[in-house]
Design goal:
It is built from four helices and three strands; from the N terminus they run αβββααα. The chain has about 120 residues and is mainly α. The model has no long low-confidence stretch (mean pLDDT about 85).
Length: about 120
């Protein structure tokens, strides 16, 4: 991604002088899991909206239901150490680790409110 007052000059140099192949030239709308947009005052903002929707869709596809609603950082009476669920198969462990990894990326790109829940689950 190029952030500049005159990005066309940089893009031209990359293409003509350095033979780069650029894709998606123009204003950034989505990059590394974040949606980019301007608020009412024209300030550039970002939020991981599409990425979170994708994670939720994956969860629903895998488990057939939406995740339970939870309030962060801690849920009263939650004691994961007392969980008596069956251990996951090796394939299910990979799915679980993939979901946790996706949520850790969501934290990195701005959803700090889920940090405690994700770290507890991981």
């Amino acid at each position: 991604m190029i952030a500049s007052r005159i990005p066309q000059v940089i893009a031209k140099a990359l293409i003509n002088e350095h033979s780069f192949k650029l894709k998606g030239t123009g204003p950034t709308e989505f990059h590394l899991g974040c949606d980019f947009y301007r608020d009412k005052q024209g300030v550039l903002c970002y939020a991981p909206k599409k990425y979170i929707e994708k994670i939720l869709d994956n969860y629903r596809r895998i488990y057939g239901t939406w995740p339970k609603v939870a309030h962060s950082p801690l849920i009263n009476g939650d004691h994961p150490e007392l969980d008596t669920s069956d251990l996951l198969s090796e394939d299910d462990q990979k799915v679980y680790q993939s979901l946790i990894g996706a949520l850790q990326w969501v934290i990195q790109i701005g959803r700090f409110d889920i940090t405690t829940a994700v770290m507890t689950l991981s």
